[in-house]
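ok so I'm stuck.
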Amino acid sequence: MEDAMPTQSQRLPERFPVGTKYVIEGRPGQVPTRFIEFPDGTRLKLPKRPAPQKSAPAGRRTRIKGKRGH
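replied:
not stuck anymore, here's the structure
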């Protein structure tokens, strides 16, 4: 099995192959290890903390419409 460490420019795909696993390993009192394991056994280590999300440009945001009671 080969481990690949993601770089900041590397992004996860929108879709994963069938059989892909999201794995969290850890023991009480330890920081858990998180990775994605693909069906071929390749592992992609994930960072300890998720990267901050960039907000969409103001013109591309969607507004949730509320229900109007009559």
